[in-house]
Amino acid sequence: LQVWGSPDSLHRLPVHPLWQSPLTIPGGTRQSPINIQWRDSVYDPFLKPLKISYDPTTCLHIWNNGYSFLVEFDDSADRSIIVGGPLENQYRLKQFHFHWGAINEWGSEHTVDSKFYPAELHLVHWNAVVYPTFEEAVMEGNGLAVIGVFLKVNSLSHHEGLQTLVDALPAVKHKFDVFDPSCLIPSCPDYWTYAGSLTTPPLTESVTWIIKKKPIEVDENQLEAFRMLLFTSDGEEEKRMVDNFRPLQPLMNRTVRSSFQ
Ligand SMILES: CCN[C@H]1CN(CCOCC)S(=O)(=O)c2sc(S(N)(=O)=O)cc21
Ligand SMILES: [Zn+2]
User: Fold this and answer.
1) Over residues 66-75, mean pLDDT
2) Which residue owns the Cα nearest ligand 1 atom 12?
3) Which secondary structure element, helix H or strand E, spans residue 112, and what is its range?
4) Of 100, 233, 244, 260, which sits most exposed with the smallest number of CB within 10 A?
5) ipTM score here?
6) CA of 183 to the centre of ligand 1 (A)
7) Are the beta carbons of 215 and 150 closer than 8 angstroms?
8) Which has the closest alpha carbon to 181: 207, 216, 155, 144?
């Protein structure tokens, strides 16, 4: 158990079975997630705005992979891509998924000034300009780019776009016709960026992280719908899918840059 917060608060963060074994990469120097200390981030005026162009018809299906639920996209051509920001090439959208907690006190993977959000969205893209397959890109330092978006609970803000996903959750093996994930990304262009890794096995140090400064707002019922999912499959003793976030990793010799002053 990680003790979080001041001793008197004695918040005890759960360590999910996925992370009970000390899953560390021997010699890892750029692991994720990390705490983003706002005042230590360095404004980089040469960072470009991130350009996002997704084709909603590339959306394939939503499913539960035992770690999260994810929506996968047809990445056989450059139809849903991001370019600009800290990226040297354009990257193709492969999938997006979420991480969340059992309660609203925690759930995100990254923290900002040591504050957790109740959930975090990851939009995963790969460098198809340089690498012939996604599998190869997963192993290379500039192979992946993941956009992180924090979710914040505001009982007055029902998120229309998220509701489309929430409606599909009960039958998670659900065919999707079209879904445009840009509706889940805040319009505010501000982001932090740093060199990191996958936060699940294989934990490869292949991710350029782009963490949006502004969260999206969702309502309590929408987050509760995430917590109804299961880690387990039919016939197994039910285990609710919650707290599927990796513990914070050391910053080591890295600087987090910001696109804003
Ligand atoms: C449960 C496995 N999660 C992996 C699956 N992929 C990598 C492995 O691919 C095998 C060829 S991935 O690149 O889609 C990816 S991104 C993230 S995260 N949380 O860091 O945004 C985790 C994962
Ligand atoms: Zn993730």
Assistant:
1) 94
2) 124
3) strand 111-112
4) 233
5) 0.99
6) 22
7) yes
8) 216
